[in-house]
């Protein structure tokens, strides 16, 4: 007990003397924690604008899009887009590949892509609420609803047949277990 008291008093002394913990130090905020969400705490790294690659061979484009679908930096999109790519890239037309390229590479926020693909449509209303569904997302199987303010409608430029394919895929109608990106062995299988 005496040992714990000594540790507590040392910790208290250290805490009081530390310039990082005391009241005079500056505090680092995370997004939304600054007063009135002024976003002064946000660090924005400019991304180069997306440019369509007009001279890229179609098979090179498919390979690049497969890679870019897998390496998102965000697990949710990595899983969703890599599985979507596995199922759809091989049958997409060049026009659809260009639309998909723009969809996954032009937006600066991967969460936007995820919510555009997974958020319910805005033309329906959550049970018991007067708000459109994007503010309420179903969670679990018990038909609970949780508040969700991140979902924004997709910009008109992304509302196309590829987005419709991605949304349909995200519904997971076959109830597949989608826990990780697919292995790449399927690339080396002979077509049947």
From TrEMBL:
Q: Name the SUPFAM superfamilies for this protein.
A: YgfY-like
Q: Which InterPro entries match?
A: SDH, SDH_sf, SDHAF2
Give the record's GO CC terms: mitochondrial matrix
**Record keywords: Chaperone included?**
yes
Q: What is its main location?
A: mitochondrion
Query: Gene3D superfamilies of this UniProt entry?
Result: Flavinator of succinate dehydrogenase
Q: Could you tell me the Gene Ontology terms of the biological process aspect for this record?
A: mitochondrial electron transport, succinate to ubiquinone; mitochondrial respiratory chain complex II assembly; negative regulation of canonical Wnt signaling pathway; negative regulation of epithelial to mesenchymal transition; tricarboxylic acid cycle
Q: Cellular location of this protein?
A: Mitochondrion matrix
Q: Which UniProt keywords apply?
A: Chaperone, Mitochondrion
Statement: the UniProt record of this protein carries the keyword Chaperone: yes
Q: Which Pfam families does this one have?
A: Sdh5 (PF03937)
Q: Which superkingdom?
A: Eukaryota
Could you tell me which PANTHER family the record lists for this protein? PROTEIN EMI5 HOMOLOG, MITOCHONDRIAL, SUCCINATE DEHYDROGENASE ASSEMBLY FACTOR 2, MITOCHONDRIAL
Q: Which family does it belong to?
A: Belongs to the SDHAF2 family.
- What is known about its subunit structure? Interacts with SDHA within the SDH catalytic dimer.
| Function of the protein | Plays an essential role in the assembly of succinate dehydrogenase (SDH), an enzyme complex (also referred to as respiratory complex II) that is a component of both the tricarboxylic acid (TCA) cycle and the mitochondrial electron transport chain, and which couples the oxidation of succinate to fumarate with the reduction of ubiquinone (coenzyme Q) to ubiquinol. Required for flavinylation (covalent attachment of FAD) of the flavoprotein subunit SDHA of the SDH catalytic dimer.
Q: What is this protein called?
A: Succinate dehydrogenase assembly factor 2, mitochondrial
Q: Which organism is it from?
A: Phascolarctos cinereus
């Amino acid at each position: 007990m005496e040992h714990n008291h000594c540790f507590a008093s040392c910790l208290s002394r250290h805490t009081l003397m530390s310039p990082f913990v005391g009241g005079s130090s500056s505090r680092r905020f995370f997004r939304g924690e600054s007063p009135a969400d002024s976003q002064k705490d946000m660090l924005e790294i400019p991304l180069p604008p997306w440019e369509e690659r007009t001279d890229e061979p179609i098979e090179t484009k498919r390979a690049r899009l497969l890679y870019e679908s897998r390496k998102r930096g965000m697990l949710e999109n990595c899983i969703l887009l890599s599985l979507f790519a596995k199922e759809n890239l091989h049958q997409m037309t060049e026009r659809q590949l260009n639309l998909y390229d723009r969809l996954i590479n032009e937006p600066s926020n991967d969460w936007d892509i995820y919510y555009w693909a997974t958020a319910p449509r805005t033309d329906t209303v959550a049970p018991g609420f007067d708000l459109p569904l994007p503010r309420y997302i179903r969670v679990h199987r018990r038909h609970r609803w949780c508040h969700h303010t991140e979902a924004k409608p997709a910009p008109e430029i992304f509302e196309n047949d590829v987005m419709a394919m991605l949304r349909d895929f995200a519904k997971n109608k076959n109830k597949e277990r989608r826990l990780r990106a697919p292995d790449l062995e399927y690339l080396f299988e002979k077509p049947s």
